[in-house]
Amino acid sequence: MAPMTNQKDRVLIFDTTLRDGEQSPGATMTHDEKLEIAEMLDDMGVDIIEAGFPIASEGDFAAVSDIAKRSKNSVICGLARAKPGDIERAFEAVKHANLPRIHTFIGTSPQHRAIPNLDMDQMAEVIHTTVSHARNLCDNIQWSPMDATRTEDDYLCRVVEIAIKAGATTINIPDTVGYTAPAESADLIRMLLERVPGADEITFATHCHNDLGMATANALAAVDAGARQIECTINGLGERAGNTALEEVVMAIKVRNDIMPYETGIDSRQIMNLSRKVAAVSGFPVQYNKAIVGKNAFAHESGIHQDGMLKSADTFEIMRPEDIGLSETSIVMGKHSGRAALRSKLENLGFDLGDNQLKDVFVRFKELADRKKEVFDDDLIALMNVSTANPSREPMELSSLSVVCGTEGPQSADLAMRFDDEIKSVKATGDGPVDAVFNAIKSLFPHDARLQLYQVHAVTEGTDAQATVSVRLEENGKIVTGQSSDTDTVVASAKAYIAALNNLLVRRTKSAPDA
Ligand code: KIV
Ligand code: ZN
Fold it and tell me: Which of 51, 187, 289, 335 is the most exposed place for a label (fewest CB within 10 A)?
């Protein structure tokens, strides 16, 4: 890990998928999922992982603390408001990391100063006190003037200087509401570097939201002006329209190094695997035409393009699929494929499995291959994404299901579920087969959770394609998701709903409120 000073050409990558990304309504991840993603980010070469907001809940604290204990090369950062209790809690959570960091922030724009009802002088005093307090606990301190891009220039320079003098080692300049434009983003960093005493001693970071679709451009413009840390998330996950996407800034710097002569420590070949993982656990699928990681990002559909590609890949391709970890071939697997072939194929797709995990996945693969003649890469990825949580170890599981549907309603479902060691069954009707199935589940496990999202997408083409179903539920402000894949859309729906309910049971046991 490079030292945290301004460097000419190294740009630090700060990933906030587990904090800002997880703040997207419904993107809640379980403890184990957060640990797994943090490990993947560390292995990929992310310099700083913002692991969560420790004061927000016991669950957030436990996740940040466990991520810190298992961290290898990445700095582990915990977020804290400008309050002594937040800062102490953040330090408690990150202190076991090899490289801990506290990130404290306060809203400095007129709009944000009005909320705690502080005048400029009072807020300046709070900044001095809280950054000094954090620095007394930890040597690595990041401070953010939230809504910096709508803060008056003179006041921004004044508070940044105070934070530097109080011991901040990184100053992050957030475009909290996604309002700025590239030229402005660059001017702001340039102004701070020119006007603030001590600015050359610390690292400036850029943190952009994507409300106007300019987050990546704004982040790169800030780097051009002297920022040396980019804050970003996998797949651009984040509040509202999301944050700068990690894969976009990393690949932009790599592909256009002629005009952006910087380097990051990221192994870009791990991007695709992380993208799939984050999409699966957050329940936010990646749009097909998303830059870098979208399903169509490397697809060449038109005849002219295909012809050009066959003659020479660089006719239409500015980067190679392998550079982001997409396997070159789509070798099809089938029911005669053995365990060794499956292991090698999964390794190719970026999944490294232990023997027990492989055994479990192989059973599911065989079940799928029995129903589906050809098993494509996307089928295996869907299989991997749902098989990380083994349903037989969950409190509830689908045991059997048959539905009657067609033009003569009402549609009905005969459904049996396992509750720990007991099997219960019921018959229910509904407006369509999925509605009948959800009614059956609801009558076996009564609950008040509201269905916020029901989404189906076909994993591959063809009428025997698997369907991946995502279900999002909300109960008393707590949001959970469940996902499942099956060649039978109705079965996938039942399993996804039950997976969401299992996650809801976990969430119910967490007593502390969310941030
Ligand atoms: O967008 C923002 O301002 C933030 C801060 C907490 C840095 O996420
Ligand atoms: Zn943010």
Answer: 289
